[in-house]
Each structure stands twice: as C-alpha cells, then as structure tokens.
Amino acid sequence: GQGDLPPEVWEKVKNHPCYSEQAHHHFARMHVAVAPACNIQCNYCNRKYDCANESRPGVVSEKLTPEQAAKKVLAVASSVPQMTVLGVAGPGDPLANPQKTFKTFELVSATAPDIKLCLSTNGLSLPDHVDRIQAMNVDHVTITINMIDPEIGAKIYPWIFYNHRRYEGVEASRILSERQLLGLEMLTARGILVKVNSVMIPGVNDKHLVEVNKAVKSRGAFLHNIMPLISEPEHGTVYGLSGLRGPSAQELKALQDACEGEMNMMRHCRQCRADAVGLLGEDRSDEFSNEKVAAME
Ligand code: CLF
Ligand code: SF4
C-alpha cells in the first residue's frame, strides 16, 4: 500500500523496483552501460557492477553508444512488459560522461516517454547537472555516499579528478563529501527523490555509517541503502583494500536496524550488474546482448 507517503511521492515510487519494496516483485529495471569514464577512484571498484558499484567476479558489461542504448531499451520494453525504469549507473560514473548519459535519456524519453529515468552517481559533479536532471524529468537519483568524514574517506578514495586537476588524500575526500551533500540538498529542494547507497566496509566506515545516515536524512534523502562490501573470494582482498572482508549478514542487518527510523532503509537491493535487465535478482542481460538486440530488428 501507500503507507504514509504523500500522493505525489507514491506516484513516483509505486512502480520503481528499487524505491518501493512492494514494487520490486512486479516491476523490472534495466541498465544501459553508456558511461565508461569515472572521475574518482574508489578502492573497491572494478566497474563491473554499478549503482551498487561493487567488487565481485562477473562478466564485463557491454558498452553501448546512446543510440544503441535507446534501441536496446525499446527492444527490452517490447518483450519485458514489467520494465518500468531505465537506469544509467555505469560502468563508470554517469555524470563523468554527461553527454552520453543525457543523450541516452533524451532519446529514450522521445521514443518511450512512459519509462522512468533513473541515475546513479558518486556525486562529485552532481551540483553541475542538477538543472539538467530536473529538465529531463529524472525523478530518481542515487548518490553513493560512504563517508562524511574526510579522514575516513582517505581510506576509501585514493584520488578524485576535479576542476582539471587531481586531488589526493583527505583533501580529495573533503571535496567529494561537500559536493555529494550539496548535490543531495539541491535535488531534494527540487522534489527529486534521492536514494543514498553506502558500501559497508568493516573496520573502515561501518561505525561511521550511522553518522552518514543522520547527515543524509537531515538533508532530505528518501531512502538509504547500506550494502555489503563483497570481497573477491579467490583472493580474500578487495582491490586497493587488501586484508579487508565484507560484513556478515548479521553485521549488515544490525547496522541497517540501527539506522532504521524516520527514513526508510532499503533492504532488497541485489547489487546489480551494469547491464542488468529484469526483475531485481533476475538476470536477463544475456537475452539482450548487443548481438541479439541487433538481430531483433
Ligand atoms: Fe538501477 Fe539503481 Fe536506479 Fe535501481 S539499481 S540505477 S536505483 S534502477 Fe536497485 Fe540494483 Fe540495488 Fe541499485 S537493486 S544495485 S539499488
Ligand atoms: Fe568505480 Fe563507481 Fe567508484 Fe568510479 S565511482 S571508481 S566507477 S565504484
């Protein structure tokens, strides 16, 4: 049901599988991998997964041009009737590839205006694009926020690329955090629903995420999705974060419970691939490879 949500918010979430727990049983999302570049480095990144932006073994997603992506969206929409949402979430950062991301949205909204547009970003360049996001009727934006304390950030982010130069260490994370929170405030002021994704990294930001939760809640975030860091089983390490492990299911749940309050916690995230297609937890990306979509014409 609608719960306590105001009607205009309910309208936006009722058929979005990530923003509504109930909706994910009935509605599907697809991602198109149009955004290869990134403007920051996360220690846990491997560019195979996005929105969740996680490190785990998998198949590399196919990169698409905006034109190919728009064609794929139409092909999927005609064979997957539950498909309500198009997400651009990687494999790099969508807003580090603004031409490709917005061109894709433009093409899709011209040919399939009923499909909701969704965006996931690390937030570094978000404040520069808020007007365009609003103009394109993007109602759902996810920002991955792993810290509000730059000292902790320095352990997660070795560098960012901002204003034509590279920043490192605490300075990099200070800038990143300011930009993320500013972007969040600008979006919520415009009535755009913001979900915050946080990767729980035991020993690095696990205790700190309660503070992150308060900070994003007070700035109007709609939903908080705390996801487990997944370490590569073969190596027991996560790229730049050697020696670290992902949290246990109990540790994750305890943190989610500690944050549960006026703001909802998302607990049904399936840590999607950059070219995911289908209901959450269902992977139909192979049915819609470039080759197969081309053959559908
Ligand atoms: Fe995609 Fe992300 Fe939009 Fe959903 S995924 S861009 S908000 S349409 Fe969803 Fe996947 Fe979890 Fe992301 S289950 S990884 S939260
Ligand atoms: Fe990787 Fe995403 Fe981090 Fe960029 S923002 S380095 S794509 S996890």
From TrEMBL:
One of its GO terms (molecular function) is lyase activity. The keyword Magnesium does not apply. Belongs to the radical SAM superfamily. NifB family. The chain holds residues 46 to 342 of 518 of the full protein. Coiled coil: none annotated. Keywords: 4Fe-4S, Iron, Iron-sulfur, Lyase, Metal-binding, Nitrogen fixation, S-adenosyl-L-methionine. Residues 24-273 form the Radical SAM core domain. Pathway: Cofactor biosynthesis; Fe-Mo cofactor biosynthesis. Its cofactor is [4Fe-4S] cluster. Involved in the biosynthesis of the iron-molybdenum cofactor (FeMo-co or M-cluster) found in the dinitrogenase enzyme of the nitrogenase complex in nitrogen-fixing microorganisms. NifB catalyzes the crucial step of radical SAM-dependent carbide insertion that occurs concomitant with the insertion of a 9th sulfur and the rearrangement/coupling of two [4Fe-4S] clusters into a [8Fe-9S-C] cluster, the precursor to the M-cluster. It comes from Rhodopseudomonas rhenobacensis. This is FeMo cofactor biosynthesis protein NifB. It comes from the Bacteria.
